[in-house]
Amino acid sequence: METIKAFLEPHTELGESPLFRKSDNTLHYIDVLGYAIHVLDLSCIPYSRRTINLPEAVASMNFCRQGGYILCTFNSLAMLGDDGSWTELVKVIKVDDRKTTRLNDSAVDCMGRLWFGSLDIWLDGSDSKRPEIPQGYVPTGGLYRYDPDQTLHIIQHEGVVCSNGIGWTSDHKVMFHTDSFRQIIWAYDFDSTTAEIKNQRVHIDRRGQTGEPDGLIVDGDWNVFTFIWNGSVVEKYNPRGQFIQKWELNAFRVTHGAWVGQDMNEIIVTSARNDGREGDPLNEGGGLFWLKNVTASQGMPKGKFDLSFQ
After folding, report:
1. Number of separate domains in the chain
2. Which residues of this UniProt protein bind substrate (predicted)?
């Protein structure tokens, strides 16, 4: 299998949460540890990139329908306006819990609601990762929803180890949610009108395999694409959760992806640096990778949070 090289050299410590804006052909993505959002113009080569500096670490972000971004910091939700204004919307993680839990990945459903999760720092922190969940221990990670009317809903208070990629099928009837530590991508029946999820079941089971599923995106045929942290690959699964194909990247820590291009059938992938692995041939961690023509259908565009507060 041919290893895909970076089209943009390493420049992020922890690249994450890529968003594509088709109207101006730009890619927006975070450097979590660099406290920055990068905006890459894909219209011409050489690509031009501008940087928006952030006051604190941001774990994930989504576009707002009215402009700007809605952000998950490690503890709160915030809004970043196109004018650079920063507004905290709601504190999610209590002060007493910030040593054990932090927010992580997020996605917006078809009705403009933000879904996001948290992770258990003690179990899955970079400096303290455990090989398994101790008997009797209940992980502190959870799943949440923030609605356009500014209400916060706790969907799952605990039991999640490392909440990660979230997505939906094109008919908006199935929702996917990743627990990286457990190596499982769950599926739920989803009611787009009420936002109710039920009938949780295992959709993709990667237990025993190399790496962990991180970000997640879906195409119009309901195929799931997951990005494998510590695994160097992007994997594709069919609507029944069966493995179809993988792409090998020249980066060890693959994080997330966004559908790009006029036909929305290509993926740009973010990655993280290799954590000091000297001599590692996977030496382009922190760069961006471009996968061409990966689906026969169009990828599902990422939702935009609705700030209208109707």
Report:
1. 1
2. 102, 104
Q: Tens digit of pLDDT for each residue in 159-189?
A: 999 999 999 999 999 999 999 999 999 999 9
Which residues carry a binding-site annotation? 16, 102, 104, 164, 214
Question: What positions carry a catalytic annotation?
Answer: 214
**Token pair of 239 as six digits:** 């609507």
- Total-model pTM: 0.96
CATH at 120: 2.120.10.30
Q: Please check whether residue 84 lies inside any domain of the structure.
A: no
Contacts of 158 (CB under 8 A, 6+ apart): 138, 139, 140, 141, 142
- pLDDT, tens digit, for every residue of 66-96? 999 999 999 999 999 999 999 999 999 998 8
Range of the domain at 177: 6-18+96-128+139-291
Q: In this structure, are residues 109 and 98 in contact, taking their beta carbons and an 8 Å threshold?
A: no
Tokens 């997505």, residue located = 167
Q: Give a yes or no: residue 176 inside a domain.
A: yes
Binding site as annotated, residues for a divalent metal cation: 16, 164, 214
Look at residue 296 in the predicted model and tell me its pLDDT. Answer: 84
Q: Which residue ranges make up the annotated binding site for substrate?
A: 102, 104
